[in-house]
Amino acid sequence: MRQIIIIGSGPAGYTAAIYAARANLAPLLIASSVEAGGELMKTTEVENYPGFADGIQGPELMMAMQAQAERFGTDIVLDDVVKLELEGEVKRVTLGNGDVHEALAVIFATGSAYRKLGLPEEDQMSGHGVSWCATCDGFFFRQKTIAVVGGGDSAMEEATFLTRFADKVYVIHRKDSLRASKTMQDRAFADPKIEFLWNKEVAHIYGDELVTGIGVVDTQDGTETTIDLSGLFIAIGADPRTHLVHGQLDLTTEGTIAVDGRSSRTNIAGVFAAGDVIDPTYRQAVTAAGSGTVAALDAEHYLAALPKELLAKADAQPVTV
Ligand code: NDP
User: Which is deepest, 134, 176, 195, 301, by most CB within 10 Å?
Assistant: First the structure.
């Protein structure tokens, strides 16, 4: 049995692991069966993470965090958690490969999942012209016309990045002003390849094998127009990934995991949450990292107060049951 298991490998998970490992808690971190590092693995330049005056590529930042966590003794498993049993002194974490790991404390830092438009064609055309990741798929749209949906920082970042490949990038936004930060807005406005379509919602995605166009509806007068294009990038935000803890952990009205004040303590003793999964507001890499720190410190205090006999069991060589 472990003292602590951390679920999630974004800035919150890795930072929690760095702190927990440096506190000699020998954490086990469950990353993901697909790719460790979370959403920043899909971004390009990160310009606002302190300490990198010239910016750093998202994947490079996450690999550095991983190396730092491993350096102090974090064990990392690339698999998905399929079941969590959180009540009681000993928590049980079941993985996709069938392994069950036990721990006295769990930090839940699963981040958030991309939002969908809710169109029937969306899933079917995913990978055939519909994408949620410009850095993954942008290359396929050389000299093409494409569109990005959304008005936040992600949409601006994706649109700006995609101009490297595409000849023309529409940004389709349902309002007449953006939510994105001023710097990102200005960069997109100054780009001659980007054209903004205001007060528009995507109503249809056309194409059989590949996307050939979209239908957009004007939110003010209801008129629908068709735009010929080959790619549609959806960047309309993300929702906290909480499905594993439904029925166990309390949620807020915004759908994030409820924590006690500024702490990371959930409604179950020994279970802590950090990062985007508790944050409906800020959702920055650096705030997630700070939140991971809080969770590791809270977990450390919790563990220190447990009966010695119980801790002794966890101090034993970590094993898979
Ligand atoms: P946001 O929630 O900030 O923005 C989502 C955007 O999508 C909004 O403009 C919203 O419209 C629009 N939207 C939401 N749902 C729909 C829908 N169903 N149909 C059409 N449009 C929709 O998400 P982001 O992913 O952009 O950003 C999340 C966080 O990550 C933010 O805090 C952001 O600052 C941060 N971030 C920072 C970056 C950086 O600094 N380098 C890069 C990327 C993200 P409306 O405005 O009408 O609500």
Answer: 134
Does one domain contain both 226 and 250?
no
Q: Is 279 a catalytic residue?
A: no
Q: How far is the CA of 152 from the centre of ligand 1 (A)?
A: 4
Residues 9 and 107 in one domain: yes
- E strands, the chain, are 2-7, 28-30, 45-46, 56-57, 75-77, 81-85, 91-95, 100-108, 112-114, 130-131, 145-149, 168-172, 194-197, 200-206, 213-218, 224-228, 231-234, 238-240, 271-273
205 and 139 belong to one structural domain: yes
Note whether 107 and 177 are same-domain residues: no
221 in catalytic set = no
pLDDT tens-digit profile of 40-95? 987 778 888 999 999 999 999 999 999 999 999 999 999 999 999 999 999 999 99
Catalytic site includes residue 79: no
Residues 229 and 175 in one domain: yes
What is the reported pTM? 0.82
